Amino acid sequence: MQLRLVFTFLLFACGSSAVYAGCPAMFDAEMRLLHSSKTVNLCDLVEGKPVLVVNTASHCGFTPQFKALEAVHQQYGAQGLVVIGFASDDFRQEAKDEAEAAAICYKNYGVSFTMLAPSRVTGDRANAVFKAINRQSKQPDWNFNKYVIDKNGAVVQRFGSATKPDNKKVRDAIGMVL
């Protein structure tokens, strides 16, 4: 009986550590969704799954890549891949108004994957996810850098802005983590 009480206490004391044992530390964050007051717990979203992380901007020459990102999401989502777009104005190409950014993503390109509210992705003020990515790989040097991350939180491959999400090299990297 005492052992059961101790075990129960430890479960409550550990809290999210027990719940998120399969979640990489880099995703242990609550972030606001684009043009919403709602937040998403990234561990709930990615636990035990590979991830494609992309830093985005709604007024960039690479913005049409949203269409290919959505196609990747549709093709690989059922196999477990999670696509997350991190809106950012680090390169001064994000809409100043989140409603406009959301319209570009959701209405113009039909984005249904998770899009997060604008945050920093470079330097000391980068959000926690990109701080972890930047320690493992080259930080974004422009919008629409793509990072294929395995279910353990390791960056498997980084693709620059010019590499489209439906490029064979990106798809091959995704295939490696599925």
Looking at the overall shape, the CATH architecture is: 3-Layer(aba) Sandwich
Helix content: 25-40%
Measured between the Cα atoms of the first and last residue, the distance is: 43 Å
Number of helices: 7
What characteristic shape results from the CA principal axes?
globular
- Amount of beta strand: 15-25%
- What composes the largest sheet? 5 strands, mixed
| Tally of DSSP β-strands | 7
The CATH topology comes to Glutaredoxin
CATH superfamily: Glutaredoxin
Q: What's the number of structural domains?
A: 1
Overall pLDDT score: 91
The SSE string, one letter per element, is HHEEHEHEHEHEEH
Radius of gyration: 17 Å
CATH class bucket = Alpha Beta
List low-confidence stretches. 3-19
Structural class: alpha/beta
Give the strand order of the largest sheet, numbering strands 1, 2, ... along the chain.
Answer: 5-4-3-6-7
Give a verbal description of the structure.
- Residues 1-21 form the signal peptide.
- Pfam families: GSHPx.
- One of its GO terms (molecular function) is peroxidase activity.
- Residues 12-178 form the Thioredoxin domain.
- With 178 residues, the chain is α/β, with parallel strands linked by helices.
- It has a single domain, classed as Glutaredoxin, CATH 3.40.30.
- The protein contains 7 helices and 7 strands.
- The longest helix is centred in the first third of the chain and has 13 residues, at 2-14.
